[in-house]
Amino acid sequence: MKLSKSEEELMNHLWRLKKAYMKDLLYAYPEPVPATTTVATLLKRMTDKGVIGYTTHGRSRQYYPLIEKEAYFAQQVNGLIKNFFNDSASQFASFFTKETNLSQQQLKELRDIIDDQIKSSKS
Questions:
Q1: How many structural domains are present in the chain?
Q2: 50-103: pLDDT as tens digits
Q3: Which end of the chain has fewer CB within 10 Å, C or N?
């Protein structure tokens, strides 16, 4: 499942707030704040996609995420690896480390993370 850039921006506000009414979401945006109708349309599309849900309180709806940020991000990264790197994590890692101008310290931290993951997967 893929969200548009506008949907991702709204979803980031909802992840941060955990639960929010329309007014809370509008308040979360920096200026210029999108129109209420725009946010309502995004919320409807995101509800239809199954990424958010809501509870009704009188005439108001309180929205909440149905997918965790980490799960969505993992899904997007895995899709990127599959679609652009021939489903090869090593091609992705090679590209990432060469093209992002990481410092020596950042590269060492990545190596430590990988080494820790290798150790924990052996257990």
A1: 2
A2: 999 999 999 999 999 999 999 999 888 888 888 888 888 888 888 888 888 888
A3: C
DSSP result, 63-118? EEESS-HHHHHHHHHHHHHHHHSTT-HHHHHHHHHHHTT--HHHHHHHHHHHHHHH
Q: Domain range spanning residue 17?
A: 5-65
Indicate if the pLDDT at residue 1 is higher than 80.
no
The DSSP bridge partners found for residue 65 are: 52
Indicate if 76 and 108 belong to the same structural domain: yes
Residue 54 bridge partners (DSSP): 63
Task: Determine the Cα–Cα distance for residues 63 and 22; give it in Å rounded to an integer.
Answer: 8
3-class SS of residue 18: coil
Asked if 77 and 83 touch (Cβ cutoff 8 Å), the reply is no
